[in-house]
Design goal:
4 helices
Length: 105
């Protein structure tokens, strides 16, 4: 019985450790598809375009994703809302209600 529990724990731990890499693989595949489509759209396919396409793909695949420029980060928003709630001396349900409202704006 102890062996079974150890085996189950090991399997669950392996699943947790593998899951992030699977999502990274999916993101990388999507990036590859996007870069390939962009290279095709720029006419970087066919004869004589090998080196140009390789250079474009290398640059495209190494590019970092653009950060969302829509307002403050969630962490900054949380800090601001916490300060405001503290200033207003809110507690309990009043604080929860205020935080929900503040963070959704």
């Amino acid at each position: 019985m102890k062996h079974l529990a150890t085996t189950l724990f090991s399997l669950m731990l392996a699943a947790v450790l593998v899951t992030p890499s699977l999502s990274d693989a999916g993101a990388q595949q999507n990036k590859m598809k996007t870069c390939n489509a962009n290279a095709d759209a720029k006419g970087l396919s066919g004869e004589g375009k090998g080196d140009e396409r390789k250079a474009f793909m290398k640059e495209c695949l190494s590019a970092k994703p653009a950060k969302a420029a829509a307002g403050p980060s969630q962490q900054n928003k949380m800090a601001t809302c916490n300060k405001e709630a503290k200033t207003k001396n809110l507690a309990g349900d009043e604080r929860k209600k205020f935080m929900k409202s503040c963070l959704s704006n």
